[in-house]
Amino acid sequence: MWRAHDFYRYFYLDRVIDHSCYRGRCLFFMGLWPGKVASQNNHPQAEAIQIGSWVALLMGFALWPVVLVWAYTKPTNVNTAELREKIVALETRLSELESTQPESNQGGAS
Fold first, then answer.
1. Alpha helices for 1-104 (secondary structure H)
2. Among candidate residues 40, 43, 30, the one with its CA nearest the CA of residue 73
3. Would 110 be classed as within a structural domain?
4. How many domains is the chain partitioned into structurally?
5. Contacts with 65 (C-beta within 8 Å, 6 or more apart), sequence order
6. Domain containing 59: what range?
7. Is the dihedral of CA 35, 38, 42, 44 positive or negative?
8. Measuring CA to CA, which residue among 68, 40, 44 is closest to residue 54?
9. Do 36 and 68 meet the contact criterion of CB atoms below 8 Å apart?
10. Cβ neighbourhood burial of 87 (10 Å; 0-12, 13-18, 19+)
């Protein structure tokens, strides 16, 4: 004999299963999203972004938006050798300027 509460029980079970599948699909899409964006943009750290996305989702979702922003940005390539050359040039220029100043101005107020 079919009763109304049996219908509601199966209806509720169907909703629970549907929502679980929907949430699973959403989490799967969210895990793939930053990695796909990074690989489409030829990001040099695409593999790290992909791994970071899954780790952020598994560890509580808090850092996932940071990984997504990381996927959309490109790191700047800094030429450290060029920066060192500029620093050395500035230091030599500073030492030249300090050596050309008169002795009375060095050492602060007297």
1. 4-40, 46-58, 64-72, 80-100
2. 43
3. no
4. 1
5. none
6. 4-76
7. negative
8. 68
9. no
10. exposed
The pTM score is 0.60
Give residue 58's region: left, alpha or beta (phi > 0; psi -120 to 50): alpha
CA distance linking residue 50 with residue 13, whole number of Å? 34
For tokens 């793939």, what's the residue?
Answer: 32
Classify 73 as helix, strand or coil: coil
CB pairs under 8 A, 24+ apart, for 3-10?
A: none
Residue 106: the pLDDT is 55
- Which ranges of the chain have pLDDT less than 70? 1-2, 4, 103-110
Contact 84, 69 (CB under 8 A): no
The burial class, CB within 10 Å (0-12 / 13-18 / 19+), for 110 is exposed
Give me the amino acid identity at 82: E
